[in-house]
């Protein structure tokens, strides 16, 4: 599958999900805990400039704003997901603190040394080619700035016919599906179950483990890289990586 096709599959998927997103994944405890853990470990401060890549309906950005008087630039390549967030921004009257831009994560158009924090939750796994994006993120971070990736700890690389790969993915998806049924009910389960097939077939989903993310961060030139998993949902977690201070 070409990168372009992968992007189209993903955009179509989120176009259909946008109006249900907050009532499905948005209700699940592991997702909320993941976003809280990201904000807590970002060391975000008042007046910091934060970039949220794959902001979707704004769940992560809103948590950053609750924690600190920061300024958010939120990017996503789905206009339908972003429209849900823009509606919240209008209703909450926070347009001075959040700017939304329709932009693809693999062609970020910002000047070097712009952001104090770059954060991305359950988004970067949609990109097949990860190293070039992390190098670009390192460039647009200010010296001493932090990258926080929150994602599922799931290595879905390898051949589709490899049964061990399949079992590895299924073990993680089982946890996700149990949580979806418990916290979100049948609708959330159905959505996460359908998404599972996309993971298994790599249809716009190219997950790697948190350890593999840490290795890509290192290759991209980051340092002080740490991995943390959510205590009750260990197949989700974060990677925090710093850009060297000058
Ligand atoms: C699972 S949602 C996560 C949304 C939000 N970060 C959250 O944690 O709730 C993934 C988001 O990434 C966006 N996305 C996927 N691929 C992208 C890409 N290549 N560039 C920009 N956004 C992308 C989707 O449109 C979607 O809004």
Reconstruct the topology from this structure.
Layout: H1 3-17, H2 29-40, E1 49-53, H3 59-67, E2 71-76, H4 79-92, E3 98-102, E4 115-121, H5 131-140, E5 141-152, H6 163-201, H7 210-219, E6 223-230, E7 233-242
Parallel strand pairs: 1-2, 1-4, 2-3, 4-5
Antiparallel strand pairs: 5-7, 6-7
Helix pairs in contact: 2-3
The chain binds S-adenosylmethionine.
What report would you give on this structure?
- A 7-stranded mixed β-sheet has the order 3-2-1-4-5-7-6, sandwiched between helices.
- Helix content is 44%, strand content 22%.
- It is an alpha/beta fold and 246 residues long.
- The radius of gyration is 17 Å and the shape is globular.
- The protein is built from 7 helices and 7 strands; from the N terminus they run H-H-E-H-E-H-E-E-H-E-H-H-E-E.
- The protein has one domain: Vaccinia Virus protein VP39 (Rossmann fold), CATH 3.40.50.150.
- The structure holds S-adenosylmethionine.
- S-adenosylmethionine (SAM) binds next to helix 1 and helix 3.
Low-pLDDT runs: 1-5
Number of strands: 7
Mean pLDDT: 95
Strand content: 15-25%
Class from helix and strand fractions: alpha/beta
By CATH, the topology is Rossmann fold
- Order of secondary-structure elements: HHEHEHEEHEHHEE
CATH architectural category: 3-Layer(aba) Sandwich
Q: What ligand species are in this complex?
A: S-adenosylmethionine
Helix content: 40-55%
Rg, rounded, reads 17 Å
**Number of domains in the coordinates?**
1
Largest sheet: 7 strands, mixed
